[in-house]
Design goal:
Blueprint lengths: L13 H26 L4 H6 L3 H4 L8 H31 L5
């Protein structure tokens, strides 16, 4: 029926919002600072003495970089799947009649 409007009352839970913001900032800082911290442990004098082969050759690469990429891709997939399920649920709610 086109004349019926349904009001879904909802309130914003500040605890959930603050936890979400803290998790987002924490994970961003972790994934942004991890490569920077590992890059700071490069032995520059040894790399310069060996004519830069240690830095350019890739022996100074991070061992956890592939793991970080795997975690990022996995979390992105979970986020996309959750978004798809949420949109599907919202579409079903819109198409469902409130009267049984």
């Amino acid at each position: 029926m086109p004349g019926i409007t349904i009001d879904y009352p909802g309130q914003l839970d500040w605890r959930v919002l603050l936890l979400s913001v803290a998790i987002c900032i924490g994970s961003t800082m972790f994934f942004a600072l991890m490569p920077a911290i590992q890059a700071s442990h490069v032995d520059l004098s040894g790399a310069l003495k060996s004519e830069g082969a240690g830095v350019v050759g890739g022996s100074g690469r991070s061992d956890c970089a592939p793991a970080l990429v795997l975690v990022q891709v996995s979390l992105s997939f979970v986020l996309l799947a959750g978004t798809g399920l949420l949109l599907q649920s919202l579409q079903r709610m819109q198409n469902t009649s409130p009267v049984s």
